[in-house]
Amino acid sequence: MDARLLDILVCPLCKGPLVYNKNAQELICYGDKLAFPVRDDIPIMWADQARALTAEEIEAR
């Protein structure tokens, strides 16, 4: 994923920062506790496509 794109992307719900998880291919918003998928280097920023983070993932931060 392009670093310049990561610099400008924000969570579509809260407009907060996103953290890129390269292994899981996800953009994570810890504010909303959601992980947005990245498919073929394209972030899917729809709330209905995001998955909820587990308590373990939030604590591991």
TrEMBL record:
GO terms for cellular component: cytosol. The lineage of its organism: Bacteria, Pseudomonadati, Pseudomonadota, Betaproteobacteria, Burkholderiales. It comes from Undibacterium oligocarboniphilum. PANTHER family: PROTEIN PREY, MITOCHONDRIAL (PTHR33505:SF4), ZGC:162634 (PTHR33505). In the N-terminal section; belongs to the LpxK family. In the C-terminal section; belongs to the UPF0434 family. Pfam families: Trm112p. Coiled coil: none annotated. InterPro entries: Trm112-like. It comes from the Bacteria. This is UPF0434 protein HV832_05220.
